[in-house]
Please model this.
Amino acid sequence: MLKRLNEVNDVVIRDVNDPVFASYGRVVKGLDVRELTMYMENHTDIPENGNVYIASVPAMESFDVRKEIEAVCYGGMSVQIGYCNGRNTTYNGFEYHKGSELNLAATDFMLVLAHVWQIRNNTITPADAQVFYVPKGTLIEMYQTTLHLSPCRTNDAGFRCVVVLPKGTNTPLSDGEKQMRDANTDPESVLLLQKNKWVLAHPERKPLIDQGAHPGLIGENKELHY
Model:
């Protein structure tokens, strides 16, 4: 798979086990995530077009592995478990959170990643990013300094990805929080879109722009092939 992806793309695709991934995150070992994978296969659909993201799925959060994730990966902090499924093939933009994100590959997919310190005047370019292949069954942690967005598919069927984040992430800001954000003069405030979610969107990514995301990904909205 990795060989083919590199043959059909004009950017280097690396496996998440490559040492280059170390500044973005790590492969997590020692957790039994089979129930999560089975739930994704049996109870979640891949939309015909675009992506679907559900921040919190009570059934997935009822599995014993949630408590283990909270204890081992988040030091006792509460998490939410949801998923992102879809057919995306383009960069579309970047987001980041204050706290690590875990992704479990219920199918193979690719991730487009960059670093928060590469943001300049609230902009970033596709050339700043690197692309990583995540094989099915792999659990990764992406550090809070890692810019990311939706996975990209590696076949016609699309992708399935379990998403674990600090509880409350990617939910709407309250009116009071929006007012404080809008009144704040720190440049980062422009990027705050939802709770614990800072976004730089490509201007062509209409769903994000319509939500009020900052159009900070400058240049071609690059597409990945498979």
